[in-house]
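The instructor's notes for this session suggest beginning with a concrete chain rather than abstract definitions. Hand out the sequence below and ask the class to guess, before any prediction is shown, which regions might be ordered.
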Amino acid sequence: MYKSLLVAVDGSKNGRKALELACHLARVDNAELHILHVPEVLPHEATLIWGIGAVAIGDELQEMEALGHRIISGAEAEAQKLGVEKIQTHLVKGEPARTILKQAAGLGAEVIVLGTRGLGDLAGLVLGSVSHKVASNAKCGVITIR
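After discussion, reveal the predicted structure:
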């Protein structure tokens, strides 16, 4: 069914569910799985890390990068454990919805899989739903999981 999938992970419970579903789909078709994590840099000298919240910029940039690598490494290990053979990981800074869409297009992903509530209700309300923006603007299929 799919040759290439992109899953956005953020360290949240719903991000983990999205990863599990993407792994199942990738394993069924022996598809390539792209695992993407997008820490968001905000204009007011803070960084938003999906599933964590806002972190002040400064010395925390290294910490944010290390956390992003841990999230990606954990997701990759989980995908391998779930039997996915073709895995690529991507840690890309930017506005999450825009970055997910750009990466999916650039990688030729046929479907994007992501959770619906990585940030929680309040942050999702204030910043807008990443999953809604992705689903509304993607040129490929989008599967959201709650």
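Then share the key points. The two ends are 23 Å apart (CA to CA). The first strand starts at residue 4 and ends at 8.
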